[in-house]
Amino acid sequence: GISFRIQIIVKEVLDTDVLLKLLFHLPVNYPSTLPDISVNSDQLTRAQCMDVKDKLLEQAKKHLAEPMVHDLILWIQQHLKDVIKQSATVCNEKTTLSKGTSREDDIWMLLLHLDHMRAKAKYVKTVEKWASDLRLTGRLMFMGKIILILLQGDRSSIKEYLILQKTSKVDVDSSRKKCKEKMMSILCETEVQSQHKRFQTFEVKEYSTLEDLQKEFETAGLTTLFSEFVPPLLK
């Protein structure tokens, strides 16, 4: 499939203009399959952005099997104010319900392997920002030449992270030109189980030995995950 970004300004929402940053990923069999959509805005909260995304996906279902991106953009320009108002109205109700219905199996975990980082400082800052924006916790781990990203959070946020990781220019090539991540491997994507420890923050950590890295996984109840996926990376 293909991915592309669109930025639009919607006038006079919440007494200000809102800049919406939309990322569409069109699968190979689009439009027979719905696109993945990511929504970001400095003027909106993360919850409001998620509500906008949900509404766009609802509209997308009405246009299944026909080109829809242009229609979706026109729709959100016309209805953003209503979506935000509705989001504010149900916000407290959702918060109350979530306290009673939150379940461990609603949380997902993702383990990624990166081949290298040429522009390490910039790359690390980008990953930290994405994790913060999407409310993901976990670790960015360096051990020798091994680079791993372990994330925990809502499944929708995990999917959004993957889209960003695959489509954004996060590194530089051998000519120092900005480039996308082309050598990333998804080692594991699964639900968090009861024996797994939940990370409370996202941290960048470096380990001097494989044993130190293994202890990080063991502390989090992820011994099996480590044994299955990490040692083969040394071969």
UniProtKB/TrEMBL annotation:
Pfam families: RWD. PROSITE patterns: RWD. Its main location: cytoplasm. The keyword Nucleus applies. It is found in: Cytoplasm; Nucleus. One of its GO terms (cellular component) is nucleus. Residues 1-83 form the RWD domain. This is RWD domain-containing protein 3.
